[in-house]
Amino acid sequence: MNYNTKLLGMINSVKAIDETSDTLVIEGFANTVTKDRAGDVIPSTAWEAPSALNNYLKNPIILAYHDHKQPIGKMVDWSVTEMGLKIKASISKGAGAIYDLIKEGVLTTFSVGFNILDAEYDNVTDTYFIKSVELHEISVVSVPCNQDSVFSVSKGMDSQDFEKFKINLTPEGDKKEEIIMTLEEMQAMAAQMKLDSQADINASVKAAFNEAEAAKTAAVEKAQKEADANAQKELAIKSSATEAAKSLIADLENTMGQKDAAFAEMVKTNHDQIVALKEEIAQVVAARNNPGLSTITKGMRGATSEKQHGEDADKLVFLSAIKKVGMFETDFGSRIKAVNDQSSLEVSSDGYETTFSTNLARDIQAALVVAPLFAEMSMSSASMTIPVNPDIQTATWVAASALADGADTDRTGAELAIALTERTLKTFKLAAKVYLTEETEEDTIIALVPILRSHLVEAHAKSIDSAFLIGDGNGKPKGLATQANAVAAQTFTTLAKADKTVLVTAKEILAARRGLGLYGINLDQLYVIISQDAYWDLIQDSEWADVQQVGQNNATKLVGEVGNIYGMRVLVSNEFAARANASVYAVICNASNFVVPRQRGVTVRSDFDVETDRTVFVATQRLNLEPLIVASTGNGKGVVSLKFAAA
Asked: Is residue 208 part of a domain?
């Protein structure tokens, strides 16, 4: 180590403290122009712009470790030199341990927190030159990003520290000889050495900067030459391709000229197929995007009412599929299009297809008895897992004595251990199809459309209600009665007999409600679904009144609703099994514990069967009935079944 280097190192590590003051003054570089550990360089010119320090000077805070919760002092002076941003800061004795670490010389480096306003990356030297900054804060840190951002304590030395300082300046190999030098001389020498070191560093930085600029310029020139060469190649390729295309077009025109009639016929045939395919795809997309039950009348411009809109959509969709032409290429469609064109309104085949599927789904929903009782859950796939919290827990009553001197657990009560479970919901596909033989007269087809459509509606509605009520769960939903029958506590055999010698009564149905437990408390969620046979028994029961006698309740009228039993709404369904010994004739359910997962709404597709010379229409949807909270058997809670006596 030479003499000058040793002297500079000593001055940077001076720990002279004015013991009579509570404030520690430190001085050094908050940031230098040297390349830091992150590969960044901040030239000194970046700190000279007004945007760099204006906001910081409003609150020149000094932090510890960039922690906004640890202010330890403030900046009292600053300057920009060729080496970088140099500051003087006062550290409060209120900084505690940080104050002591600075005083003992453990913490000797600065680090800056700032926002980059402008920068440039040099890929040759892998350097990020930050040209414009906004300073946020300056921190005292243990390991700075910029390794040269060191500071020293700038208070005067006492006599004891000065003697130690002189001894450390003794040249190696001659420890007996002391160098007599005043404090002012040593400080002047150190300042000069710092200036020399800064000048050397600044020169190195400038040289590196110039080298990077030259490399960057060379790289740009090289890239430009390569780009020009590639452009020439691309131009040659394009020219060759253009000539080839011209030759191909000439050959094609020659062929078209020779076989004009045959070629025109082929184009016409392909055009018809493309148009038909476009209409089919549009119908499928519109149906899949159909939300299910809202009334959509986009494109229905020629009709005078919503009902007429729906009827026109039915006719257009069926005619288009059977005649194998576009909707507005039929006689009926051309008349509607003419009306719309005269009124300057848009005509859209997608609108008719969407309305057809939407109204079909609406009519299916309107025919359902059981399914509308439950909320629907939209699913993006055929199965989905959801978390369920099945347990109701209790809080803890805290004794007065525990409030004064009890343990924490005594004062706050027992922990509520939340044991979430999972339910995997899935959907089943339901499909119904009808056929129509090839017809030439549109009037004949239009007359058959309502019949075909009603078959699709009735088939879907009947299958959904039947599955939701008595389905066995094999390839279809597991019905309410099936789930209740699987749990002994949820199955009730009543005194009513299948031979009608003992009739169904309202009191027995009310008594079965007890089997619901907590699920039987809230009447707003309770529904009694009975068979038609049970209904005829009930109207003879003096304990039960028909809805016309007791008046309709405030809730929305449901399909099949005929009255109530002690506040529970009663609905009649035709989907129960025939009246027989031990057969189920009614269920009571709490609708809040069941959900209808639905993957998609009603989709209608059509195709032509060449062998049978007829067109098939297929209506499909994916849905299920699932309980949220299940019993130990895996079947839903909140439902009970009522059976006729065994004999």
From this structure: yes
Q: Report whether pLDDT(74) > 70.
A: yes
CA-only gyration radius of the chain, Å: 44
Q: Interhelix angle for 183-258 vs 3-12, to 10°?
A: 90
Domain that holds residue 332: 266-367
Instruction: Pick the closest to residue 71 from 88, 47, 91 (CA basis).
Output: 91
Domain contains 433: no
Question: What is the token pair recorded at 316?
Answer: 């257009």
- The DSSP-derived string for 515-553 is GGGGGGS-GGGEEEEEEHHHHHHHTT-TT--BHHHH---
Q: What span, in angstroms and rounded, lies between the C-alpha atoms of 68 and 88?
A: 20
CA distance 587 to 526: 10
Tell me which DSSP letter residue 177 carries.
P
Listed residues 148, 182, 213: the one ending a domain: 213
* Contact (Cβ atoms closer than 8 angstroms) between residue 66 and residue 111: yes
| Burial (Cβ within 10 Å: 0-12, 13-18, ≥19) of residue 230 | exposed
Looking at 336, 367, 398, the residue that finishes a domain is 367
Which residues lie closer than 8 Å to 420 by C-beta, 6 or more apart? 387, 388, 389
60-63 long-range contacts (CB < 8 A, ≥24 apart) are 60/138, 61/137, 61/138, 62/89, 62/91, 62/137, 62/138, 62/139, 62/140, 63/113, 63/137, 63/138, 63/139, 63/140
| CA–CA distance, 128 with 533 (Å, rounded to integer) | 86
Contact 466, 477 (CB under 8 A): no
Per the DSSP assignment, residues forming a β-bridge with 24 are 91
Judgement on whether residues 208 and 272 belong to the same structural domain of the protein: no
CA atoms within 13 A on the CB side of 412: 5
Amino acid 201 reads I
Instruction: Specify which of 250-254, 281-285, 420-424, 591-595 reaches the highest per-range mean pLDDT.
Output: 591-595
Q: Are residues 200 and 299 in the same domain?
A: no
Which range, 6-10, 306-310, 633-637, has the best average confidence (pLDDT)?
633-637
Distance CA 478, CA 376 (A): 16
Which pLDDT value is given to residue 501?
A: 92
As for how many domains the chain has, the answer is 3
Q: How far is CA 451 from CA 319, 435, 444, 458, 473, in A?
A: 14, 11, 12, 11, 31
* Residues 69, 209 within the same domain: yes
Whether the CB-CB separation of 636 and 325 falls below 8 Å is answered with no
- Alpha carbon distance 368, 53 (integer Å): 73
- The per-residue pLDDT of the chain, averaged, comes to 76
Write the pLDDT tens digit of every residue in 144-175: 888 877 776 643 333 344 344 444 444 444 44
> What positions carry a catalytic annotation?
66, 111, 137
pLDDT tens digits, one per residue of 112-144 = 999 888 888 888 888 888 889 999 999 999 888
Tell me which range, 8-22, 225-239, 469-483, 553-567, is most confidently predicted by mean pLDDT.
469-483
